[in-house]
Amino acid sequence: MARTQGHGNPKWTRDETILALDLYLxxxxxxxxxxxxxxxxxxxxxxxxxxxxxxxxxxxxxxxxGVGFKLMNIRQVATGKGLGNVSSMDRQVWAEFGHRxxxxxxxxxxxxxxxxxxGLEPLPEIDQELPEGxxxxxxxxxxxxxxKLRKLLLEARRGEGLCCEICEVTRQDLDTSMxxxxxxxxxxxxxxxxxxxxxxxxDLALLCANCHRLIHRAMVLHSRWVDIDHAREILRQASAxxxxxx
Length: 246
Ligand SMILES: [Zn+2]
Ligand SMILES: [Zn+2]
Prior knowledge:
single chain, 246 residues, mainly alpha, 11 helices, 54% helix, binds zinc ion
């Protein structure tokens, strides 16, 4: 499935582009030589991301020269000067994050921690990649799907009746296992802050499967972390808008 360019290397992913943007912003727009320690360090990190495993065996994959070119492409998007081969991912990540230096740095640090946290356990497939990129999204989904935590959450909420924290849907007429099938755990800690901490029950919200998809979709559309109150507000405004336009 890897699409290729240049030396047959896969296209840069969102995570990888965020890591390069972080270096560009940390150096205040000065593009260092491919021989510099910062470029070599980034090259090594990109080669250790837990995907592209096959490609990463190629010596040209994200090598310091390739990283240098990517930094020049980012500079081109940032300044409008240059003749490089800028990708749509470069433009998109710059449009979303080019003026959010501190946030980019927090996300980049979380991706670095995420490489350690991911370990050798397989990462789940994801269908909606959040703005922070594939690795942090996959770790978020892996935390949410942890069967032990899901069980604890359902047990803790059973007493008060299972109810979605966004739309408040509840089906207490159904038997327990049918009710449980409606709900999913959503991890409340923003992707860039989750790091190595162990998930606690208080880090999880109980959402119906619909609202869980909606809150993730809202994060993709807003290119920001969306909390439960914000998600409720989005739904409330949409229904108010609909009432008014009738
Ligand atoms: Zn709901
Ligand atoms: Zn979630």
